[in-house]
Amino acid sequence: MSLKNTDIVAMKYKAFQKVGEVASQSQNSSQRVRAYNGFTHQILSGGIRSGQFISQRELMVLLDMPLGAVREMIPRLEAAGLVKTVPQRGLQIAHVDLKLIHNAFQVRSMIELEAVQNFVHLASDDELRAIEASHQDILARARSSNSDLANDALLLDDAQSVDWGLHDRMVDAMGNDILSDIYRVNSLRVRLIKLEHSVITPLRLIPAMQEHLAFIAALRQRDAAQASQRLKEHIDSAHNRVMTAPLAQVRGEWTPPHFQPQGSPIEP
User: Fold this and answer.
1) Which of 22-36, 101-115, 131-145, 234-248 is most confident?
2) CA dihedral 237, 166, 50, 265 (to 10 degrees)
3) HEC profile for the chain?
4) Where in the chain is the domain with CATH 1.10.10.10?
5) Where in the chain is the domain with CATH 1.20.120.530?
6) Using an 8 Å Cβ cutoff, are 103 and 208 in contact?
7) What is the chain's mean pLDDT, rounded?
8) Does domain 98-253 have CATH number 2.60.40.1840?
9) Domain 7-93 belongs to what architecture?
10) What is the mean pLDDT of residues 203-218?
11) pLDDT score recorded for residue 50
12) pLDDT per residue over 13-65, tens digit each?
């Protein structure tokens, strides 16, 4: 039975309609991803702080995203424990307290100490040399800098990228997307904590690089036990600093570059 022209036109219309729906869904998904990535960037750059209240419209402006994309992103943030909705107040960024600190560092330690057992054998000699060289470069820049490190935003940003980059690479090398996703979300919690307490400050830059280099040396020797011990000491050092360093002291050492408070932060 032959199809009438009207039937063919109707079929084409439905096909084009379906393509439009798929394109629209893809665009919405892309906007959600961009909004989420923008939110994580704001955490990493200090644009969003722990305990801060912020409205959906403020997020829309801050992330430069449509309100719809912001609203669709919020359930993901709530599920990850990064924000919560407070009636009559709006959204509150995760509040840094002792429980969050303990839980976040425990998860970090569990994942990274598992990851190092793989990375110590998987990483190539060339990769480890490159990682070591990037750390030595930061250390050399810090030691030879004639300027005030507290005002050297580029060096501090580069040091933070090198620091976090090693940890992220080690976890991703396991090839387990589920663990990588869990680690990424937990890293946001850890970095929220660090923005309140112990990011790489000028006084911490050189010791942090030295801790990493000791860890990298164990990796290059393919000594899994020593690498694990060095990594544990590094994580414990960060954890202990969070627990013991007075917040005012750390903020006095360094205020994150480009930090522009949004909303009304709540002190931890």
Assistant:
1) 101-115
2) 100
3) CCCCHHHHHHHHHHHHHHHHHHHHHHHHHHHHHHHHHHHHHHHHHCCCCCCCEECHHHHHHHHCCCHHHHHHHHHHHHHCCCEEEECCCEEEECCCCHHHHHHHHHHHHHHHHHHHHHHHHHCCHHHHHHHHHHHHHHHHHHHHCCCCHHHCHHHHHHHHHHHHHHHHHHHHCCCCHHHHHHHHHHHHHHHHHHHHCCCCCHHHHHHHHHHHHHHHHHHHCCCHHHHHHHHHHHHHHHHHHHHHCCHHHHHHHCCCCCCCCCCECCCC
4) 7-93
5) 98-253
6) no
7) 80
8) no
9) Orthogonal Bundle (1.10)
10) 91
11) 85
12) 555 555 444 444 445 568 878 888 888 888 877 788 888 999 999 999 999 99
What is the pLDDT at residue 106? 96
pLDDT bucket at 169, cuts 50 / 70 / 90: very high
